[in-house]
Amino acid sequence: MMIEPRQENLVDGATGPWEIILGLEVHAQVTSQSKLFSGASTEFGGEPNAHVSLVDAAMPGMLPVINAECVAQAVRTGLGLNAEINLYSVFDRKNYFYPDLPQGYQISQYKYPIVGEGVVTVDLMKEGYSIEVGIERLHLEQDAGKSLHDQHPDYSFVDLNRSGVALMEIVSRPDMRSAEEAKAYVTKLRTILRYLGTCDGNMEQGSLRADVNVSVRKPGAPLGTRCEIKNVNSIRFIGQAIDYEARRQIGILEDGGKIDQETRLFDPKSGQTRSMRSKEEAHDYRYFPDPDLLPLELAQKDVDALAKALPELPDVKKTRFVEAFGLSVYDAGVLVSDRASADFYEKVAKGRDAKLAANWVTGEFFGALNRLGKDIEDSPVSADALGELIDLISKDVISGRIAKDVFEIMLETGEAPGKIVEERGLKQVTDTGAIEAVVDEIIAANPKQVEQLKTKPKTIGWFVGQVMKSTGGKANPAAVNEILRKKLEIGEE
Amino acid sequence: MSELTGLTLAEARDRLKKKEITAHELTEAHITALEAANTALNAYIVPTPDKALDMAKASDERLGKGKGLPLDGLPLGIKDLYCTEGVRSTACSGILGDFQPVYESTVTQNLWAAGAVMLGKTNMDEFAMGSSNETSAYGSCVNPWRAAGSDKPLVPGGSSGGSASAVAARIALAATASDTGGSIRQPAAFTGTVGLKPTYGRCSRRGMIAFASSLDQAGPITRTVQDAAIMLRHMASYDPKDSTSANRKVPDYEKALSEKVKGLKIGVPKEYRIDGMSAEIDELWERGIGWYKDAGAEIIEISLPHTKYALPAYYIVAPAEASSNLARYDGVRYGARVNGKDIIDMYEETRSHGFGAEVKRRLLIGTYVLSAGYYDAYYIKAQKVRTLIQRDFNEAFGKVDAILTPATPSAAFGVGEKGGDPIEMYLNDIFTVTVNMAGLPGISVPAGRSGDGLPLGLQIIGKAFDEETVLKAGQVIEDAAGRYEAPEAWWLSETAPAKKAKVTSKTKAKTS
């Protein structure tokens, strides 16, 4: 089935528009205490070679033993990607020589991965549309160590702390058509992984990296030759690499050249990609089933138990927020994009006006966190405190405008809103006598405006403003309106 | 030969228990014998006399308190394939340099936990690749047996040549060995010893330097079937650190030996009557059949139709796994390194100098058969053959309890005699590889002599995890054939010592 490309995704070249075809292989580090086949710690940032077992260093006679928690994490992830779980999977050896690959092979899954086909719904919030990205497979594999070339003038050093850490390679179908779509896909994938707790998604620490397959074609033409950009480690770089690579390929094709299938590297400094190895130089990995490991066989009941214990995932949560709380799809989308935000919001909204809560969380609250550069986990304002503030608004103790001031004070002092309102005398004035006195004063002092009001009733707003100003914003706006209308003899709108 | 070194493992155990002898005496007798023999035999490449005496002392203390362990004070040879903590472990390859593990293999750990004493590391073919012990980086090991009236040095078989030679020459009460295609049973047959290859998964492979992971299995070489039973009980265990080890109880194998074989069904596979098999081997086999009949067993002719494909399939599967298993010997972390101008050059120099010719041959074969475009034609086909071989055995074991075959196509041959054609060497394993391909237990038991007085063995193959029947059936052969006298200790009378083993690799390889 040919899907008509979206016009906004087409890239203009000298010979007309081009369509970009993108598929991603995302490597996600499994959240686990120990490595995929050894008991060594997976902790990030230890002294070099501090987390290395005899197995990780490939000492003679040492054998891998599968870590059951890593398997469970892969299954949870597969379930979270709406994918088929393969009850039978096989670990293979991928053979190649490299100093930071102690065994001389990586243990991976080739023919029989643990997770089969799935699908991820990706929302392009700004652009206002959604796409479905097919998942081809997910398999478990070992990470390699790290070669350090900058420690000594004559030697390279090897750090094996990462050697053997479990990775999930999540392979997508070539279902993305723009850098924005690819970025949104990785963002969504990261959100799902974080909801599941199967990968922390820290791209700076290398917990999540992507190989990006890029090709271009004229709309409707068959698929072009692709290039694979290896190991891109930030969402921003993924976008930059795609934009550069697509332009490069279009340039070559429009000059009458052809694309060589090759592996390329993205250089964040120059924003360019460069050739790493050609198809001819590609390794023959000589995959074969690892004879040290038996095929991995799962029981359906164990998979079912994992499925039952899964947390609510973002898509389901979003639908619930829209349906149960009456939020807009956009607000719900913003709130569920991060599990901590969604949890925070639910706590604030519980037993309160859900829409008002959403406005406060996505508006003032997120704005403040952004400004302070803080995560929700270390926010100076708790969900309970924000809820209390909203209660004060709902009970007409303070106005929305005063609430914003109270919120600022809460950010600074960490004090409870009730206490702030009490101590600083910010309670709304609902005493009509007091408001009447102020209104009389203002009417008396401004005869010109009173005259004007007769022809332009809308200028009553000016009077409201004056009253609020002189009461320090504490007057109840509804009461002010009513008294003004009565005194100035203006009917209800 | 002192009286003490001539004891069987069981006899020595019983006399230690009764305090008729001490572990110290027994160990010292072995060390003395070892020192007198090893120059000629080159059975041990790393003798560990100090360690042996220390272990014997600890045994004597326990025995003295009446708290003796099952193997307390029994001196053993350990094949160099086993990693032993603080003792050089190289699988007789130059590429491991002076590698000293910081860990102990599970099998040897089990033996030490049972009180056994370590005499040293025994010679073997490099990475267990060979059938004559001639591929060892530490030089050939020599068979203590000689043909009648000849002083021509003979090979002890391989790859566990050093273990077999040591046990036959009475310089170990028993020894550990390992069997990937026949490496326990063939040298046992060549040296007049008992060689037991247990079911795949019976013993842990952890700490055994890998050759071919799906075929490698630890087992003992001993002088009697009973000793093999004793050794296996204390080598075998379920090991959570080896995913392929079997989570099954280890039975008391010694107990099984007293069971009757009357009514036991013994299969005789017609396909093992190969072309050009010597009359001598054929007669041996016939004699064995007769012994079982005499013992009241039933002889049933069976067919294992895919036998002829076993050897070629083995020489695809084993090298394929080896090519990957030996990739870790790259000069980066341990063992020998030959520096080069860059990393690729270092790899090439290290591996060119570190590995011997036979290992290189198999690494090349293995790399080739796993390559894109050849994988299906070789590796996958060989795996299919393997499945067919397993099926042959499964069908046969529907009818019989054990299978009787010759252990080897000939008696021991001369050192240097089969150096030219690797295929000729590979044919030594023709009766033994099928057992590894099917993962079954097999035992080689001394059954007679060749025309010129050299040992010959018969093989019993059993069902998976039915070592008890294998041992029980093996006992029938031993009872009928009689135990061998020790070979004449010619090394004590010969003044000129045999050529000293050429030591270590021929390279300037330094350990890193």
Describe the structure.
The complex is a heterodimer of chains A (493) and B (512). Chain A has 493 residues and is of the alpha+beta class. Chain A folds into three domains: 7-306, no CATH class; 312-423, no CATH class; 432-488, Orthogonal Bundle (Arc Repressor Mutant, subunit A), CATH 1.10.10.410. Chain A contains 15 helices and 16 strands. The longest helix of chain A is centred in the middle third of the chain and has 20 residues, at 235-254. Chain A is elongated. The mean pLDDT of chain A is 92. Chain B has an eleven-stranded mixed sheet with strand order 1-3-2-4-6-5-11-12-10-7-8, sandwiched between helices. Chain B has a two-stranded antiparallel ribbon with strand order 9-13. Chain B is of the alpha/beta class and 512 residues long. Helices cover 37% and strands 13% of the residues of chain B. The model of chain B is unreliable at 497-512 (pLDDT under 50). Classes of the chains: A alpha+beta (493), B alpha/beta (512). The A-B interface holds A 54, 57-66, 93, 95, 97, 99, 102-105, 156, 158, 284, 286-288, 291-294 and B 82-83, 89, 91, 96, 99, 101-103, 105, 205-210, 212-214, 240-244, 320-321, 323-324, 326-328, 330, 332-334, 343, 347, 367, 370-372, 375, 379.
Low-confidence stretches of chain A: none
Distance between termini of chain A? Answer: 57 Å
Rg of Cα set of chain A: 30 Å
Number of strands of chain A: 16
Could you say which overall geometry of chain A the principal axes of the C-alpha atoms support? Answer: elongated
- From the structure provided, what is the oligomeric state, counting identical versus distinct chains? heterodimer
Please state the structural category of chain B.
Answer: alpha/beta
Strand order of the largest sheet of chain B: 1-3-2-4-6-5-11-12-10-7-8
* Shape category of chain B: globular
